[in-house]
Write a structure and sequence with these properties.
single chain; 31 residues; mainly alpha; 0% strand; 94% helix
Amino acid sequence: MADKKIVCLGGGIGTVNLIKGFKGRFDEISV
């Protein structure tokens, strides 16, 4: 169970970073 929680936490952080990266790219494109 601990391993699954760590994987979920890491996946969540990775997803957040992806979303932030996409937002940053869209901002650069719109400018």
